[in-house]
C-alpha cells in the first residue's frame, strides 16, 4: 500500500551509516531548486520567489534550474538521481507526483526515489464560461448538459493536465458527458472560451482572474475545499451539491530519497518561514497563489490520498495519453 511503503521510505534515512546520519546541516554549498517546467510559468515564478527569500533568510545561495520536458517527469527524474545531501531539491506539482504515474511509464518511482518535505502553496482551479452562456451556476450548467442532444463542449488545455483531470472529475461527479476540444496549453484554451469557440474551461486562477474581474469570463465554481481568499465571491462546487470536485494545483517541496531527517526538517522550517512572510504572501497573491505550507509528517497520508484519488478517476474515465 502507498502509505505503508511511504512511511517505510521516510524511516529509511534512519538506517543510513553513522557518517551520513551525522552530517547534520546542509553542506556549505549552493542549493539548486529544480523546476520541471519552463521559465515564466506559475510554478517557476513561485520557485523564484521562494529562492530569493530563502537566500535572503539563510545567507545560503538558492538557485532555480528549469529542467523541462515530458510533462515534468524529466525534472523529477533528475532529482530522483541526485545525491541526497540537500543541495538538490524539487519544486513539484500534483500533476506530476500524483497524476503522471497513472498516465505515463516513468523512469523513476515517485514513492521509492523521492521524499516529501512538505506542501508549499496552492493555485485554485476555477470553472468559467463565456458570459453569453445561459448557465449562471454549476447546477444550471449540469441541467443543460443533461438535455438530450446537447451540443456542449469544453476546452482541454492538454490531456493529462491538472485542469483536464479536474474537468473529468467534475463530469464523473455530475454524471454527464461532454466532448472536449483540444488546445495547446491553458492560454489558447482560455482564448477559445473568450472567443466563444467553446463555452467552458477549467483553469488555474492565475490564468483567468483578470478576465473574471473584468467580466469577460463568468466563474461558476472554484474546485477547492473552501472559497478562495483570492476570489471569495465564487462558490465552491461542494456548496452547489458536488462535494467530490476538489482539485487544487498544489506546489510542493521534495528531495531525493535518503535525504537525512535533519535536512528535511530544516528545509521545511526555512521554506515555511519564507512562504508565510508578509512580503512573500503579497507577491504570491499577484500570481493567484495561496501559501498552504505542510509538514513532512503530513506528506505520506496526503501523497497516498492524492495518488489513490487520481488513480481511481483516471481508470474509471479510461483516460489515456496518446
Compact summary:
By secondary structure, the protein is of the alpha/beta class.
What does this structure look like?
It is a single chain. The chain is α/β, with parallel strands linked by helices and 322 residues long. The protein folds into two domains: 2-123 and 249-316, Bordetella uptake gene, domain 1 (D-Maltodextrin-Binding Protein, domain 2, 3-Layer(aba) Sandwich); 124-240, Periplasmic binding protein-like II (D-Maltodextrin-Binding Protein, domain 2, 3-Layer(aba) Sandwich), CATH 3.40.190.10. The chain is 39% helix and 18% strand. It has helices at residues 2-11, 18-21, 42-58, 73-80, 94-99, 110-113, 138-145, 162-174, 186-194, 209-214, 261-276, 278-285, 299-316, and strands spanning 31-35, 62-66, 88-93, 114-129, 154-156, 180-182, 200-204, 218-222, 248-256, 290-291. It is globular, with a radius of gyration of 20 Å. The protein starts with a helix and ends in a 6-residue tail after the last helix.
